[in-house]
Amino acid sequence: MTIKELCDALNRPVSMVQRCLKLLMASGKVYSQLDGTRKQLVYYS
């Protein structure tokens, strides 16, 4: 999911979602890759 999709699904602001993703990535529970257009990060668990 992209940050925009996560924000919409969780009904939370971008800043909060980014903070949570940063913590999850640091703990190794989530990783990210650029999408096919190389413009957005897509997050995976």
The structure class reads: alpha+beta
Give the mean pLDDT. 93
- Using DSSP, what is the number of strands? 2
Sheet with the most strands, sense and barrel status: 2 strands, antiparallel
Spatial strand sequence of the major β-sheet? 1-2
Shape: globular
The residue fraction in helices comes out at 40-55%
Strand content: 15-25%
Layout of helices and strands, plus pairs?
Layout: H1 3-10, H2 14-26, E1 31-34, E2 41-44
Antiparallel strand pairs: 1-2
Report on the structure:
It is a single chain. Strand 1 (31-34) and strand 2 (41-44) form a beta hairpin. The protein has a two-stranded antiparallel sheet with strand order 1-2. By secondary structure, the protein is of the alpha+beta class. It is built from two helices and two strands; from the N terminus they run H-H-E-E. It is globular.
Quickly list its features.
45 residues; two-stranded antiparallel sheet; alpha+beta; single chain
In short, what is this structure?
The protein is of the alpha+beta class.
